Amino acid sequence: MVHPLHEIEVDEALARTLLRAQHPDLADLPLSPAGTGWDNAMWRLGDDLALRLPVRAVSAPLVEHEQRWLPVLAPLLPVATPVPVRVGVPSDDYPWAWSVVPWFHAEPAWSVPVERRRAWVDDLADVLVALHRPAPPDAPDNPFRGVPLPDDTALRERLDRLALPDADRVLALRTDLVTAPAWDGPSLWLHGDPHPANLLVRDDRLHAVIDFGDLTSGDPASDLSTAWLTFDADGRAALRDRLDHACGWDDALWRRARAWALHLAVVLQMHPVDHPHLAAAGRRALAEALDGA
User: Fold this and answer.
1) Three state DSSP letters for 155-183
2) Which residue from 101, 105, 221, 265 has the fewest beta carbons nearer than 10 Å?
3) Is 106:196 a contact under the CB 8 Å cutoff?
4) What is the pLDDT of residues 9-38, one digit of tens each?
5) How many CA atoms lie within 13 A of 220 on its CB side?
6) Is the pTM of the predicted complex or chain greater than 0.85?
7) Measuring CA to CA, which residue among 141, 156, 289, 127 is closest to residue 223?
């Protein structure tokens, strides 16, 4: 699968130009590249800040969603979140909004052995309990999260590209799981992408949840796919127990969540050269979703 093309290269010169024009008091802090994903370039700024700049037009509104809604949601959550501390506006130098956000001194969950993640299951459960509350009508739209899974056309294409040996099992299990009753509750706030690269850990605790670009509202099943994307069977059981106790979730929701886990585990594997850590997380998650409810 072709990696999304970056429409703008955000190099150090551009980052400094933007800072000098809009936040000159930050312009002389050290800058170092912190990675570029599908949607955003990240530059570490000094010891405790980072720049978050879209690299393609389709992702530009996602930064605006974070700027609008993270200040509202962050006080509700029991861990740190990247609430923008400064906002950049479009200019002649750069066409989209951008943010200065906190830099968290923590490690991504994908780098932590899966058996050690059990230590902070309750932390993540408490984040999801706090977040999954009714959202207002003007919450961001996202046609890829919080909605019923699309038909399996795209999944079949991805499975063909990856030539996965378990493709038939994936499709058969998905066919069974999507028969679960649809969500009929209110549209709840959703993170949209709580996989192990967006969960930061320090001292065996969940320290921060990052990348709220897919923030939306709807069926929480897509968020609950993290039970398979992030944990092993013991961790997943503990997460489900705490969430069921707090929220009263039923088996239909967890069946939809497992279907989402199959879908997202395959998506994570699509760019193994550009994002090998995501591909590895996807392979592990797919095995979990296939073998464990």
Assistant:
1) HHHHHHHHCCCCHHHHHHHHHHHCCCCCC
2) 105
3) no
4) 999 999 999 999 999 999 999 999 999 988
5) 27
6) yes
7) 127
Cα separation of 173 and 164, whole Å? 15
- The dihedral through the CA atoms of 179, 180, 185, 191 has a sign that is negative
Nearest to 195 by CA among 115, 281, 96, 121: 281
Q: From residue 110, give the alpha-carbon distance in Å to each of 148, 246, 280.
A: 27, 26, 9
Give residue-wise pLDDT tens across range 259-268.
Answer: 999 999 999 9
**CATH fourth-level superfamily of 12-102:** Phosphorylase Kinase; domain 1 (3.30.200.20)
CA atoms within 13 A on the CB side of 50: 21
Residues 6 or more apart whose CB falls under 8 angstroms from that of 194 comprise 124, 128, 209, 223, 226, 229, 230
| 273 token code pair | 């050269």
CATH topology of domain 107-291: Aminoglycoside 3'-phosphotransferase; Chain: A, domain 2 (3.90.1200)
- Low pLDDT (below 70) residues in the chain: 1-4
Question: For 43-82, what is the HEC assignment?
Answer: EEECCCEEEEEECCHHHHHHHHHHHHHHHHHHHHCCCECC
Residue with tokens 């929480």: 220
Contact assessment for residue 269 and residue 283, using Cβ atoms and an 8 Å cutoff: yes
The vertex-190 CA angle with 184 and 195, nearest 5°, equals 120
- Polymer length of the chain: 293
Give the domain ranges of the chain. 12-102, 107-291
